[in-house]
Amino acid sequence: MTLFERWHLDKPLFGALALLAAISLVVLYSASGESLHFALDDAIRLLIGFAIMIGVAQIPPETYQRWSVPAFTLGVLGLAGVLAIGVVRFGARRWIALGPLSIQPSEFMKLLVPMALSWYFSRSHLPPRLGRLAGAALILLVPVLLIAKEPDLGTALVVLLAGTIVLFLAGIGWRTILSVGLTATPIP
Predict the structure, then answer these.
(1) What are phi and psi of 35, to 5 degrees?
(2) What is the pTM of this model?
(3) What DSSP string describes 12-26?
(4) What is the greatest pairwise CA distance in the chain?
(5) Separation CA 143–CA 151 (nearest Å)
(6) Where do the structural domains in the chain lie, given as residue ranges?
(7) Helix runs in 1-152, H state only
C-alpha cells in the first residue's frame, strides 16, 4: 500500500495542487521584488493547508454525509443571525461578533451548500425527477438569497456556482440549468 492510498489521497489531484502551490510561490517571490519573507510566509500557510487537507481526507465520507444536514442548518441559522445581530464593517453586515472573534457564516456555506445538495441527491435515483429539483432549489437558493441580502454578491455567486456544479453532477443538463437560471433572472 502506497503512502497516497494509506492517507486516502488522489495522486493526480495532490500532484496538481502541489504544482499549483509551487508556481504560486514562484510568482509571489517574483512579484514581491524577490523578497523571501513573503514567499516563506505563504509557504508556511500552504504547508498548514496541505496538513489540514490530509487530515480531512482521513475522515470517512459517511461522517460528512451524517453531519451535512446539521451543519447546513447551523449555517443557514448563522446567515439569519447575521441579518438580525450582525456587525457592520466596510458598509456590509456580514459578521457575527463572538467576543474577540468574528465569524462570517457565508464563508462556511461555500462548502455546506454542496455537501447538503450531495446528501439530498444521494437519497434518490439520478438524474433527479422534477419534484426533487424543488427541494434542491430550496437548499440552494435560501443561502444564496440570505448572503445576497448582506450584501455580499461575490460570495452569493460563488455559493450559487458551487451548488450549480452539484446539480450538473447529479445529472441535470447545462441547457436545463441555464434556461432555468435565465428565466429566473430579473431583467432591469
Answers:
(1) -90, 115
(2) 0.79
(3) HHHHHHHHHHHHHHH
(4) 59
(5) 12
(6) 3-57, 65-184
(7) 3-6, 11-31, 36-57, 61-85, 105-121, 130-149
